[in-house]
């Protein structure tokens, strides 16, 4: 089932057929109950939905369905930081000593290190006590400070500024810095600075486990004691915080991917800072910049949170955008479902230009 994006011209029939085929062939290899995807090249687009929003029922996804977007949230948090840099309220190369004085080596870790995943700070989900508590009772409330303390308390992965390690703790710390500088909860800052100005009406930073209707049910096999399938729809996203708490829709993510790729909310200097790679992350055509990945020219980020998987990608040289949403995070062929689909779709419009990476 395919339909053009609202207000957009359709991609040519031959390309649309190839995209349909690529989507169907990939879905046949993975265990995703449902999928909603879109590809745009310039002002022409193609969108498609497949499967169901709820296992065991015929509930065809729609483009308006809300879904948890996991780590795509990092791109929003990073943008807030860069806006504050533009306004002279932060400097990327200042240390985090002011905000986290008790963190080991706080005087050597910079804000840039947090965004580029070069701080050496471990991810709090690596703390088995924390992750088991979450999986045992995924509806409980969490305080960012508790999760940050857990991550900071784990052994460092490398000295500050001398490596690459993808850590949710880094982005939670960025969120705390944003709140301190603005004097407002990060959810409110996101609404005021990004969601409202861009008219992202389907995008939110929910303070509870409730997802705005219409929405998907999400499914995971993550479990502290086994691998049984679990419905994660009512799981609290607060465990992910500024690193993964947001909810969005396919049309909103299309708009957001273009904004990220063009830097329209930032000064040219801040956009250059966003696209400055962590040298330790560079390899095989891939790199991690400031809260954003680059993969063979595509500016991209994967979102992964129990029950939901997503990916956005923007290719500047073609003004091309891909958005993929699925309602499971269960891997197939040692890869998450959204990157597998994104890779297949990218091969149609820009061959050999993207991989099935995680960020």
Question: What are the key terms here?
Answer:
359 residues; alpha+beta; Beta-lactamase; nine-stranded mixed beta sheet; two-stranded antiparallel sheet; 10 helices; globular
The CATH topology label of the domain at 63-257 and 276-318 is Beta-lactamase
The number of strands is 13
Overall pLDDT confidence: 94
Shape: globular
Kindly provide the name of the CATH class of the domain at 63-257 and 276-318.
Alpha Beta
Walk me through the structure.
With 359 residues, this protein is α+β, with helices and mostly antiparallel strands. 31% of the residues lie in helices and 16% in strands. It contains ten helices and 13 strands. It has helices at residues 13-27, 73-86, 111-115, 128-136, 144-153, 168-182, 186-195, 250-262, 268-274, 337-349; strands at 2-3, 9-10, 34-41, 44-51, 67-68, 219-220, 230-231, 247-248, 286-288, 293-295, 298-305, 308-315, 320-326. The strands form three sheets. Strands 1, 2, 3, 4, 9, 10, 11, 12 and 13 form a nine-stranded mixed β-sheet that branches. Strand 10 and strand 11 form a beta hairpin. Helix 2 packs across helix 6 (168-182) and helix 5 crosses helix 6 (168-182). The longest helix has 15 residues, at 13-27. It is globular.
């Amino acid at each position: 089932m395919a339909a053009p994006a609202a207000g957009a011209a359709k991609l040519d029939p031959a390309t649309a057929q190839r995209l349909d085929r690529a989507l169907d062939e990939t879905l046949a290899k993975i265990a995703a109950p449902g999928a909603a995807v879109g590809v745009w090249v310039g002002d022409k687009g193609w969108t498609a939905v497949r499967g169901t929003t709820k296992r065991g029922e015929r509930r065809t996804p729609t483009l308006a369905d809300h879904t948890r977007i996991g780590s795509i949230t990092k791109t929003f948090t990073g943008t807030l930081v860069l806006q504050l840099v533009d306004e002279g309220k932060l400097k990327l190369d200042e240390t985090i000593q002011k905000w986290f004085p008790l963190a080991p080596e706080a005087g050597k870790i910079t804000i840039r290190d947090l965004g580029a995943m070069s701080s050496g700070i471990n991810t709090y989900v690596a703390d088995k006590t924390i992750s088991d508590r979450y999986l045992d009772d995924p509806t409980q409330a969490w305080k960012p400070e508790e999760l940050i303390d857990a991550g900071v308390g784990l052994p460092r992965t490398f000295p500050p500024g001398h490596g690459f390690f993808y850590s949710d703790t880094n982005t939670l710390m960025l969120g705390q810095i944003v709140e301190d500088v603005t004097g407002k909860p990060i959810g409110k800052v996101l609404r005021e600075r990004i969601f409202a100005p861009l008219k992202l009406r389907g995008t939110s930073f929910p303070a509870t486990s409730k997802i705005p209707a219409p929405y998907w049910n999400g499914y995971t096999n993550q479990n502290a004691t086994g691998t049984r399938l679990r419905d994660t729809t009512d799981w609290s996203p607060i465990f992910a915080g500024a690193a993964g708490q947001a909810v969005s829709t396919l049309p909103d993510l299309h708009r957001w991917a273009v904004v990220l790729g063009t830097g329209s909310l930032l000064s040219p200097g801040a956009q250059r800072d966003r696209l400055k790679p962590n040298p330790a992350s560079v390899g095989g055509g891939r790199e991690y910049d400031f809260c954003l990945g680059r993969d063979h020219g595509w500016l991209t980020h994967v979102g992964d949170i129990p029950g939901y998987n997503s990916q956005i990608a923007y290719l500047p040289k073609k003004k091309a955008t891909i958005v993929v949403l699925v309602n499971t995070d269960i891997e197939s062929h040692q890869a998450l479902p959204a990157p597998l689909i994104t890779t297949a779709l990218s091969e149609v419009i820009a061959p050999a230009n993207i991989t099935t990476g995680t960020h």
